[in-house]
Amino acid sequence: GILNRWRVGSTTTYFAAWRRVAIASRAFAAARARVVPYVRALSKRPAQRTAADLQMLYGFLVEKDARFRRMPRYEAIEVCRKMRAEEYDAGETIASAGEDDGKVYVCVYGAASEWAPQPEPEPGL
């Protein structure tokens, strides 16, 4: 168990550490539960998605990404019809600078970082 890693400290220290782990675990489970409906809808083939699936995905997209709030609703719904779920491992590179795979990525669960190279300074500046 997790408590075996700590060899020194009081029972209070053990309890406090275990409490932090338990709270983090509950938060993790709650976050995972929130995305289940989206993953379920995205696991369907585009033609099998219901109007309710599309509406739910649309609501998610416009909440998460301003690009979808600016486009006409019918276009965003079409994106919802065609989009799919992709899972990536921690530390995995999804796309590299200069690479154009024609995809738009929206993080449904977890976290992602964007790393871009610094532009070269123009000569004489």
Word description of this protein:
This is Cyclic nucleotide-binding domain-containing protein. Residues 67-110 form the Cyclic nucleotide-binding domain. The chain starts with 10 loop residues before the first helix and ends in a 43-residue tail after the last helix. The chain has one domain. The model is unreliable at 1-7 (pLDDT under 50). With 125 residues, it is mainly α. The protein has helices at residues 11-42, 51-64, 66-70, 73-82. Helix content is 49%, strand content 0%.
Given helix and strand content, the structural type is mainly alpha
Major beta-sheet overview: none
Instruction: Determine the N-to-C terminus distance.
Output: 58 Å
**SS element count, helices:** 4
User: What is the number of beta strands?
Assistant: 0
Beta fraction:
under 5%
Query: Which radius of gyration do the C-alpha atoms yield?
Result: 21 Å
- Overall mean pLDDT: 78
Count of separate structural domains:
1
Q: Unreliable runs, pLDDT <50, ≥5 residues?
A: 1-7
Helix and strand pattern? HHHH
The share of residues in helices is 40-55%
Principal-axis shape equals: flat
Annotation keywords:
125 residues, mainly alpha, 4 helices, 49% helix, disordered N terminus
Task: List the topology elements.
Elements: H1 11-42, H2 51-64, H3 66-70, H4 73-82
InterPro entries: cNMP-bd_dom, cNMP-bd_dom_sf, RmlC-like_jellyroll
Protein name: Cyclic nucleotide-binding domain-containing protein
Domain Cyclic nucleotide-binding: 67-110
In brief:
With 125 residues, this protein is mostly helical. It has helices spanning 11-42, 51-64, 66-70, 73-82. The protein has one domain.
